[in-house]
């Protein structure tokens, strides 16, 4: 009789919220991204956190200890330089973290973590979602940052890991709509593009004033195929006529020689300031840079690994009401034209750099204000997650 009364009072206390009920654990894991990454933390993580239904575990890279927060835990896979050797053995550390966390649902954002994710899936019986953020095989082939033998080895490994994982991944999230064409063998997917995570800024038609001192911005990952050096040379040409302009570059460079090249070039141009690092930077730092900038530069190379995608920076510009200049791309132009938000340039066309920019500065921007169509679709994401609980 005493036992039955005890059980009754425990159940009653839970119903009255007097005893804590452990929330289901969800882990979101990445190798290359910072703990407070634009997609894993802001788009996916904060969307889940707002429901107050789950305990979130964010796994990634950080040089600092993140503050403790209710229903949010951070775990570092790396806290210093991420060498290729350390990345090769990252699955060993990831195994230990999964054993410690014991998630009910795991979202991995890179192929590198799939081996450990599959092993622990059999042991812990969690659901596995692969957030496919990049076409990694195409990236390796097109970006040309590796010697040929390393490139071939990387492609072989990615193909092996992704194909072996396919039967055991419960669902895929495509970060780009073009992945529907690039991955025809995947049927269980949801498209969730890298649109802006926060509130859309209310904007009205705007125009630059004559003789206005303008700050230009390049942000995010800084690699050769993103055209940063070409944009710096383009900006140096602009300064010959507009010496009061300023260019800020914020982000991280995964290739050391490229960071050195940027620093050497910036040292010769006082109007270019760098906030760059070998390590990933928190998304908050990039958002802060948007607050003071006037024009955003998107000087991406038009490679098959880049041109079919919509840059997240474009959605950020639209959401924050920032005019932008981008490399020629018909799909990007179509989006920009909807709002009169930007113009396409050839950043390598130094001869016409000034005249092209002057044509740009004459325009009136944001004649049509962007609305919820440029915002990350939280509702679709949350419905997907709720289907597993």
Automatic annotation (TrEMBL):
Highest taxon, organism lineage: Bacteria
Domain Glycosyl transferase family stretches: 212-364
Alphabetical list of SUPFAM superfamilies matching this protein: UDP-Glycosyltransferase/glycogen phosphorylase
Protein's name in the database: Glycosyl transferase family 1 domain-containing protein
């Amino acid at each position: 009789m005493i036992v039955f009364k005890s059980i009754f009072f425990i159940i009653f206390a839970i119903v009255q919220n007097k005893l804590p009920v452990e929330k289901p654990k969800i882990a979101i894991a990445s190798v290359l991204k910072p703990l407070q990454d634009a997609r894993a933390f802001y788009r996916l993580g904060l969307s889940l956190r707002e429901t107050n239904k789950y305990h979130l575990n964010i796994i990634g890279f950080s040089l600092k200890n993140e503050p403790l927060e209710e229903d949010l835990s951070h775990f570092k896979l790396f806290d210093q330089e991420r060498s290729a050797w350390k990345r090769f053995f990252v699955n060993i550390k990831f195994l230990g973290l999964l054993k410690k966390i014991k998630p009910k649902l795991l979202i991995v954002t890179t192929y590198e973590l799939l081996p450990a994710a599959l092993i622990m899936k059999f042991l812990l019986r969690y659901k596995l979602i692969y957030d496919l953020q990049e076409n990694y095989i195409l990236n390796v082939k097109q970006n040309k940052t590796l010697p040929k033998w390393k490139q071939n080895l990387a492609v072989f490994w990615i193909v092996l890991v992704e194909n072996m994982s396919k039967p055991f991944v419960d669902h895929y999230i495509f970060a780009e709509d073009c992945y529907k064409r690039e991955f025809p063998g995947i049927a269980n997917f949801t498209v969730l593009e890298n649109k802006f995570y926060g509130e859309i800024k209310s904007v009205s038609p705007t125009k630059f004033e004559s003789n206005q001192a303008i700050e230009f911005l390049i942000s995010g990952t800084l690699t050769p195929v993103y055209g940063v050096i070409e944009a710096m040379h383009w900006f140096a040409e602009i300064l010959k006529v507009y010496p009061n302009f300023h260019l800020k570059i914020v982000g991280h460079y995964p290739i050391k020689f490229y960071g050195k090249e940027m620093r050497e070039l910036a040292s010769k141009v006082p109007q270019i300031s760098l906030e760059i690092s070998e390590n990933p930077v928190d998304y908050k730092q990039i958002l802060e840079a948007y607050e003071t900038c006037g024009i955003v530069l998107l000087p991406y190379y038009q490679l098959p690994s880049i041109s079919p995608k919509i840059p997240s920076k474009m959605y950020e510009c639209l959401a924050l009401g920032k005019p932008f200049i981008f490399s020629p791309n018909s799909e990007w132009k179509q989006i920009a034209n909807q709002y009169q938000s930007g113009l396409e340039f050839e950043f390598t066309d130094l001869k016409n750099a000034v005249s092209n920019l002057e044509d740009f500065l004459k325009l009136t921007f944001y004649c049509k204000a962007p609305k919820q169509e440029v915002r990350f679709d939280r509702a679709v994401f949350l419905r997907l997650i709720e289907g597993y609980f």
